[in-house]
Amino acid sequence: MTKRIITTANAPAPIGPYNQAVLVNENTLYTSGQIALNPETMELVMDTIEVETKQVMDNMKAVLQAADMNFENVIKTSIFISDMNNFSKINAVYGEYFNEATAPARETVEVACLPKNVNVEISMVAIK
């Protein structure tokens, strides 16, 4: 097994003992969860739930690109949200990044609290 750490300045730097993503055997990417941190300022972008979700997905896009992948490579996503009442708004923004016919498997879970008290965190698994 080979393991390569994926990092990019185009997504927020880790705020703990983890990496943005790990590429295994040069074909399977496991991403850490992304929240709505602006990678340039490391400030949260939380104007609305839609703006927050877009920042999360743009951060994820940067991580995928650092591994020479895109959203078409994603096979599984995990979405953690602080309030299930925001699901439809989060889902609408999330859906803009995928082709519905080839969208990945996914779970969406409401949790009690997320890092920095954000409203949404998303992680992904992708393959080449």
From TrEMBL:
GO terms for molecular function: hydrolase activity. InterPro entries: RidA, RutC-like_sf, YjgF/YER057c/UK114. Keywords: Hydrolase. It comes from the Bacteria. NCBIfam families: Rid family detoxifying hydrolase (TIGR00004). Belongs to the RutC family. This is Rid family detoxifying hydrolase. It comes from Pseudofulvibacter geojedonensis.
